[in-house]
Amino acid sequence: MTRTYVPDRGDVVWCDFSPRVGCEQSGVRPAIVVSPIKYNSLTGLAICCPITSKVKGYGFEVELSESSQIQGVVLADHIKSLDWRVRSLRFIERASEATISDVIAKSITLLQP
Question: φ, ψ for residue 91 (rounded to 5)?
């Protein structure tokens, strides 16, 4: 029996963000998973933030470490819940704990009153 990959918090993955509406990120691009594996496994969803190579210096960008396979910034304000089975998320690497902590901290500020 083949074991299915279940994304976990801190995984950097390839993901298809299409279709796009407005100024959302689209196409196949790297993303970081911010939801824990237990949630992802139970729901079939994963909460992700896209990664872009176009650094603009916005306050919600989180830079990936220089040793990362993927270079660029996480867009912590582009939070998206995705059906990871349908979108066929593919594992690339694990992000550093510092990176995932920064992404979550910046994302949380959007949800606080």
Answer: -65, 135
Pairwise CA distance, residues 4 & 108, whole Å: 30
What is the domain range of residue 31?
Answer: 11-109
Q: What is the pLDDT of residues 24-34, one digit of tens each?
A: 556 789 999 99
- Is residue 64 included in any domain, yes or no? yes
Query: 5 lies in a domain?
Result: no
- 47-98: pLDDT as tens digits: 999 999 999 999 999 999 989 999 999 999 999 999 999 888 899 999 999 9
Note the pTM of the prediction, 2 decimals: 0.89
Give me the number of domains the chain comprises: 1
Cα-Cα-Cα-Cα dihedral sign, residues 5, 78, 83, 54: negative
CATH, residue 99: 2.30.30.110
Q: Could you tell me if residue 70 is inside a domain? A: yes
* Cα separation, 78 vs 82, whole angstroms: 12
Structure tokens that stand for 110 in this block: 């959007």
